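Subject: Sanity check before I submit

Could someone independently write out the structure tokens for this chain? I want to compare against mine line by line before I put it in a report. The sequence has 575 residues.
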Amino acid sequence: MEAYPVIRGKKSSRLSIFPAFTLTCFLSAIVIGLVSTWLQAFGYLPSIGFKHFSLASWVQLFSYPGFGSSLRATLISGIGATLLALTITFTLFAASFQNRFWRLLKRMLAPLLAVPHAAFAIGFLFLAAPSGWILRLLSPTITGFQIPPTWSIINDANGLGLMVVLVMKEVPFLVLISLGALGQVDVTRSLAVGRSLGYETTQVWYKIILPQLYPKIRLAVFAVLAYSLAVVDIAQILGPTVPPTLAVQVFRWFYDPDLEFRLLGSAGATLILLLVLVSMGLLYLLEKGVQQILRIWLVNGQRRPGLSVSVQLSNLIVMTIVGVSCLVILVLLVWSFTWRWRFPDFLPQAWSFHFWEKGLTQINEPIRNTITTGITASFLAIILVIGCLENEVLLRKRGIKTGTGRILLLIYLPLLIPQIAFLFGIQVTLATLFLDGIWLSLVWSHLLFVLPYVFLSLGPVYRSYDQRITDVAVTLCQSPWKAFLKVKLPMLLRPVLFSAAIGFSVSVAQYLPTLFVGAGRYDTITTEAVSLASGSDRRIVAVYALCQLLTPLLVFLSALLIPRFYFRNKKGLRV
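---
Independent answer below. Compare away.
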């Protein structure tokens, strides 16, 4: 009997709406945003009197004071963070896979991913600042400091502190994506064959498995590169200040009261896009170069145990990432209850609930906006992603090769193109159409970035589902829709909810879309936390950062507990 016997013609066209609608929404937004930004980059913005194209903005950009320093800090922090995060991820897989440190990291993946970048940056600032917790622990016994030192590893001119935080946040993301891609590599058989030939486990990973894994996560690595080169919120907290990174400087130009600076900002945003594209090209060439250089090593047959040191290093990295993340949360918690805390005391002299009471009275609307926008964007993303994937299933069962899977790669464009390169163009277009500052526009702007992450996390699991189970269900109930709701969706409930939680955390972390598309009318917990981090009282900043952290963390917890409750009477489906 043919599977999906009821789905023909008309039903098929309904499913094909999902990829068509999704791609239209994404591509139209990016094209409109980029074109609008490019026009302004070359001096064309009729609304403020610039009706002729010119290169004046580019000349002003390259001659702007501090441009060279901004560019250097951007490249060092962005490219350095990407290469380090990728190297660390591969080291973790090769040296710690399935040991007790790996199991610790795997258990902590959800909490690590749930911590928004801005909240993590604020906590790291409280941890590593000259008056931070680390120096309080060492002072005055070891350092001799009675007052905070004048030097700092935070806000350094080369963006090294920013790079460290980016690495610590991107490694869990790359590990998660790699775990999904690892299902397409026969790890068990590769390890068995490699060991039977006399290779160590670590050598098998480096010589056999990782070369197969990297092409499958290349897109995620490019997304990390694009984000790291164009990040604004973390760079405002931990990056260099005078001059700042290029993305922060462009952001300031966009919000300068002098509207002419918007042309300069557009030129800077276009330059960031070019930097990202060139960096991706160089990374791809580096990949090919490394392949050629290591080709002899990969096939030389050497079995000397020369990589054992990486095991200890990998275990240390796991403990560092997990330990620092726990300390970040803990120091935020301590600061939020602090009343008086002098340096170099390790703990406050006086505690108080005052700042929680003060913060919670001011934070109601930002939290409400954060939750409603995040839940709506995540829900829409799940529907669109499942619709696109179900369309793939239907086409595959009918033997139709349309290249839909490759076309859907365009969904990832918002991750590969810097936000600042097209969001301002979208803002100008929406303002022209009187659509800026509308809640639905804000949800749509968040959806642009939520949906790719949902697709990245859910796609591999969804495609690996054994469709024969649903085929049998269809023959029993004679309804593909009922088979989907009663069999397939419950079996995929955990990955669906986990992907929705990832989407929600991505929405919570959105800073530029909220500012640009929301037109300042919708404050979220992220925009409030970032704006307060630069100069407000540490105690109230800690309250806001913890609220930003707890919001997605509770959603991740719900994603873990709901399946346990739903499957409590189904032994085969219980965790």
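---
OP: Matches mine. For the report I'm noting this point. The chain has two domains: 1-49+353-575, 66-352.
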